[in-house]
Amino acid sequence: MLKLAVLVSGSGSNLQAMLDRKAQGLLDVDFRLVLSNKADANGLERARAAGIPALAIDHRQFPDREAFDAAMVAAIQDHGADAVALAGFMRMLTPTFLHAFPGRVLNIHPALLPSFPGIHGQRDAAEYGVTIAGCTVHLVDEQMDHGPIIIQAALPVPSGADGETLAGRILAWEHRIYPQALQWLAQGRLRLEGRHVRVEGSPCPDVARVPGSHCGEALVHPPLEPGF
Ligand code: GAR
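^ thats the input. predicted complex w/ glycinamide ribonucleotide below
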């Protein structure tokens, strides 16, 4: 069972997708802690509703990023977690944090990295005029939205879509690929080879075209497994 802490700064819909997958019996994750830098983050409410310890640590109370990260590491370790999922956590992590959980910090980004990193990925993609957008789950390193990629979903951009429309369509796919990536981590199936992440036993080497029931179609690679 993966002993996981989830870090949120806002709505927490990706956290909710994880909780829903767990409730469906698809995710071998023991949610030890949900942590936020904002006391009013809705994600903390979602955690409490699910009976998961929820904690806010205000980054503004620390002299620098290292001190804030050290406090988060202590809280996460106190709760027995040894892996971390960033789910809309809008702060950069320092080596102090990353060295505490080597190769075990994941992030989701609402764009096809390496395009459109940053806090406005969907808006930047819409304004740029891309015709294919998407989302990426990756391992976190010391650069923003940069580490080795685990899974991506690519979807067509409807003509005339603005950043907000696009964000909604992308979010529906975030909710599918992030729990899948976490389940691979939980199963010990992620192998890092340089910048490349290989999913052991991924059933099909080809790109999977997934008809989405409620969110259109996307190309997802590696393919989602049954239930995701
Ligand atoms: C998600 O769209 C996530 O990809 C994005 O924040 C949103 C959080 O939503 N993260 C980033 O932009 C990271 N660079 P949520 O709180 O509803 O899960």
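The longest helix spans residues 163-186.
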